[in-house]
Amino acid sequence: MKQHRSLGFTMVELLVVSTIIIILSAVGLVSFTAAGKKGRDGKRATDMQAVRSALEMYRSQNGAYPSSTTWTGLMTDISSYLNTASVNDPKGWAYTYTPSGSTYTLKSAMETVTTSPNVTTCPAGRIPQGYSSCAIDSSITQCRCTVTGL
To answer: How far is CA 14 from CA 8, 19, 80, 123, in A?
Structure first.
C-alpha cells in the first residue's frame, strides 16, 4: 500500500501558532501603551519644571509671581524666560496656574493611575519628581499633580 504524505500544516498546528502570535501581540500592545503613558507623563513633569523655573526667574526680576489667572496669560507673562510654544500637554489636556499672593500652584493631569479594590494611587504609586502632591480629580476622572511655589 502506498503511503500518502501531506505537504501542509494541520488545522490544530495553525490554531496553536495563531494563538501564540495573538498572545504575544497583546502583551506587546499593553507594554507599548504603558510606555506611551509614562512618556507623556514625563513630558508633563518636564513642562511643569520648566514653568516653575521661569516663574522663579520672573519673581526674582519683578518681586512677585505673575498675577494672571489663565494659562494663556501666564505664558504671555513668562515668555521672556521660557519658550512657551514648547509647553503644551501631549494630549491637549489643560495645565492650570493659580497665583496665591506669595506662592502659586501649577497643575497637570497624569495618565499613569493605578486602581485596585479600595485603593486608587495616582500616579501609579509615586509622585513624579518636582511635584508636591497628586490626587484623583473626580470631575475629570484624571490624576492631577500639583507643583507649589517656593
So the answer is: 10, 9, 63, 42
Return d(Cα 132, Cα 106) in angstroms, integer: 10
Q: What is the pLDDT of residues 59-97, one digit of tens each?
A: 899 988 899 988 999 999 999 999 988 899 898 888 888
CA angle 128, 95, 141 (to 5 degrees): 75
Alpha-carbon span 99 to 66, nearest angstrom = 7
CA distance 43 to 40: 5
pLDDT tens profile 74-84: 999 999 999 98
User: Once rounded to an integer, what is the mean pLDDT over residues 96-105?
Assistant: 83
> What are the C-alpha distances in Å from 11 to residues 17, 96, 100, 115?
10, 58, 69, 41
The answer to whether residue 7 is domain-embedded is no
Q: Which three cell numbers stand for residue 2?
A: 502506498
Domain count, the chain: 1
| Chain centroid offset of residue 14 CA | 40
User: Residue 98: which domain range?
Assistant: 12-148
- Cell numbers at residue 9, please? 500544516
- What are the grid coordinates assigned to 82, written together? 521660557
Question: Does this model's pTM top 0.90?
Answer: no
